[in-house]
Amino acid sequence: MKEPRSTPAADLRAVFEWPVRIYYEDTDLGGVVYYANYLRYLERARSEWLRAMGISQTRLLSEQRVLFAVTSVSIRYLSPARFEDVLIVTSELIRLKPASMTFSQRIRRDTADGELLCQAEVRAACLDADSMRPRGMPKGLFREFN
Fold it and tell me: Would you state the pLDDT for residue 4?
């Protein structure tokens, strides 16, 4: 399995890629990935995108009392992933607002043709960790994303 691929940390708008291997536990009786698991792969890629940029969600929570929560997902399944496939999950920041981020995400088979299996648009809101209500991102973080 290939290592994660992305551009340097300074370019938050670049497409970030994260590899995922399909295990037996991810599949149904027919060896096909259960549809809800695609959401897990998308989540992992967004979390790894933040980590690759040097942003610790744990530190944001403990020091700034903010966290991110998905508020909407639009997803389209195009072709099934199967047991033992290696996939590439991409995350691209396409919209940034003071209290939310929207990502375009794709899941492709890690093969020469890179068959597109799934595409999604995911919106995550910045929340105050104590009230669980929307709030603006800390100014430094918003500037970093911008």
Answer: 52
Q: Are the C-beta atoms of 70 and 45 separated by less than 8 Å?
A: no
pLDDT (0 to 100) of residue 145 = 80
SS3 57: helix
What total number of domains does the chain contain? 1
Q: Which of 11, 26, 28, 85 is catalytic?
A: 28
Residue 101 to residue 103: CA distance in whole angstroms? 7
Q: Which domain, by its residues, includes 35? A: 16-145
The reply to whether 113 belongs to the active site is no
pLDDT of residue 48: 96
Identify the CA nearest to 8 among candidates 47, 52, 63. Answer: 52
- Starting at the edge strand found earlier in the chain, the sheet holding 86-97 runs 16-21, 86-97, 100-109, 116-128, 66-77
Q: Flag whether 33 is in a domain.
A: yes
- Report the distance separating Cα 60 and Cα 74, nearest Å: 27
Task: Give the chain's residues under pLDDT 70.
Answer: 1-13
